[in-house]
Amino acid sequence: MIEVKDVTKSYGNRDNKLSVLKGITAKIADGDFVVILGASGSGKSTLLNVISGLEQPDCGSVKYDGKDITKLSDSELTRFRKDTVGFIFQQYYLLPNMTVEKNVRMGADLAGNAEYRAIIKAVGLEGKWKKYPGELSGGEQQRVSIARALAKKPNVLFLDEPTGALDEETGRQALDYISVLQKERGFTMVMVTHNQNIAQMANTVIRMNSGKIMEVSENQTPKTAYEIGW
Questions:
Q1: Residue 79 to residue 163: CA distance in whole angstroms
Q2: E strand or H helix at 27, and its extent?
C-alpha cells in the first residue's frame, strides 16, 4: 500500500513561488493499475515524481507499507529506488555507448533477471540486440527503455506519458505488453497521461487539476490496449 498524505510541492523562491501540489492525499493498493489524468500544468508529473521518490515534497508524507520515504537519507532513498521501483519516461534516458542488449541488461542485473532477452523480443526489438540508441528510431528507443524497466522486475512501475513518442500500432503493442505483464506479476503500476482513452485500461483513475485531486474513480471493466480509442 502506498499512502500519500497532505503533500505539497512548490518551486521558486518566496517572491516568485509556484505552488504545484496543494495538499494531495491518496492511497494506492498493492497490485493496482492507476492512471493519473490531467492537463499540462495540473501537477500530475510532479505528483508521480514525489510518490516515486525522485523529488522530495515540501511537506506531507509518502509511505510504502508504513515506511515514510520522505524521511530517508539520500543513500537510503537511492537504495529504495534501486530495489523497489522502475521508471518509464517519455524521454528515453538510454546510454548512447551501450547496445540495446546492454541497456536492458542494466535493469535486469539489478534484479538478477536472466530472462531479459525474452522482454526485448516481446517489445519488438528481436534482431536489434547489437544496435546502439543512435541507430534506432524514437519509437524503438522508447521500447528499449520499456524493456529495461520491466527487466528490473520492480514492485512498483511508474510511467510518465510512455507512449508519447510511439505510433498507434507500436503504442498499443507496448501498452498491451506492459498491462499483461502487470497482471501476471502483480506489481503496482502508476501511469501519468493526458490521454483519456488510456485511462480506460486502469483499475483506478485519479483526475487532477491545478495541483489538486478532483476525482478518484474505479473502472469496473477495464479495457485492453486494443479496445481503447487512440
A1: 28
A2: strand 18-28
